[in-house]
Amino acid sequence: MLFFPQFRTTALFTMLTLVMLVCISHSAFSQPLKQELDAFGSQSMKNVPPERVAKYEQTVMDVSKTGVLESALQKGAQAPDFEIPNAKGSKIALKYLLANGPVVLTFYRGGWCPFCNIQLRALQKALPEFRKYNATLVAISPEMPDSTMKTAERNKLQFEVLSDVGNVVARKYGVMYKLPESLRERMRPMLTQFNTAAANDELPIAATYVITSDGRISYSFVESDYRKRAEPSDIVAHIASLPKATSTK
User: Fold this and answer.
1) Among 42, 79, 135, 247, whose CB has the most other CB atoms within 10 angstroms?
2) pLDDT band, very low/low/confident/very high, at 107 (cuts 50, 70, 90)
3) Minimum mean pLDDT among 28-37, 88-97, 137-146: which range?
4) Non-local CB neighbours of 35 within 8 Å, separated by 6+ positions
C-alpha cells in the first residue's frame, strides 16, 4: 500500500489535534457545566408540586414557540458590530476586541437568574483556557450597568460584562424574544427593576457565539431553555481547532 507524505502529515496533525482537544476537556474542566446546571435544577424542583413543575415546563415550551430559535444568527453568519457600556460605563466595541483575536460572546438573562450565575462562574473558571488562544470573553445582558456591576462583583468575574439596555444587540443577533403571556405578568415587575420599563417584557435566550477576527460566527449555541448553556470545554475546544490558533501556554 502506498502512502503519500502529505497524507501522513495531515493524518498526524488530525490525530494530535484530537488528542489535544481530549486533554483540554478532561484536564481543565473537572465538572461539566451541564452537571452543575442539572444538579441545581433538580434541587430547586425537589419540593415543588407537580402541577407547578408542569407550568414551568410549559413556559419553556412557550418560549421555543416565539420563533426566536429561527431568528437567531447561526454559524457562518456575519456578526453585527456593537458598542455598549461595560459595568463601569466604558464603551466596548466588538471590532476592537476582534483585533486581538477571536471573541466569545454569550448572552444571559440577568444576575437575578441562578442558572446564569452558574454559567458565568463556569466561564470564569475557563477564562485562562480562553486566554491561551488570545480569545476575549464577553457576556451581555439587558440589565442596567449598576446591576451588571453587582453581577460581576458577586461572581468575581474578570471578563467584560456588558449592559445591552433595551436589548439592542440581542435584536441584532436575533436572540431576543417577547415574553409569552404565561411569563409576562410574573416577570414584568422584576424586569422593570433590573432592566428598564421600556424592556420589561423581553429577554435574550441563552446564546453563545465564537466570532473570528474576520467577523464571522464560527460557533453558535442557541437554546430557548434557560436551563441549558454552552459547555465551556466545547467552546475552548472549538477555539483551539481554529486556523492559526496557537496556545500561549
Assistant:
1) 135
2) very high
3) 28-37
4) none
Q: Which residues pair with 163 in a beta bridge?
A: 141
CATH no. of 5-241:
3.40.30.10
Q: What percent of the chain has pLDDT over 90?
A: 69
Cα(148)–Cα(146) distance, integer angstroms: 6
pLDDT at 29: 60
Residue 79 backbone class (left: φ over 0; alpha: ψ -120 to 50; beta: rest): beta
Q: What does the pLDDT look like over 159-178, one tens digit per residue?
A: 999 999 999 999 999 999 99
What predicted TM-score, i.e. pTM, was given to this entire model?
Answer: 0.85
Q: Where are the domains of the chain?
A: 5-241
Q: How many CA atoms lie within 13 A of 146 on its CB side?
A: 4
All three cell numbers of 212, joined, read 473570528
Written as one string, the DSSP assignment of the chain is ----HHHHHHHHHHHHHHHHHHHHHHHS-SS-HHHHHHHHHHHHTTTS-HHHHHHHHHHHHHHHTTTHHHHS--TTSBPPP-EEEBTTS-EEEHHHHGGGS-EEEEE---TT-HHHHHHHHHHHHHHHHHHHTTPEEEEEESS-HHHHHHHHHHTT--SEEEE-GGGHHHHHTT-EEEPPHHHHHHHHHHHHHHS-GGGTTEEE-EEEEEE-TTSBEEEEEEES-TT----HHHHHHHHHHSTT-----
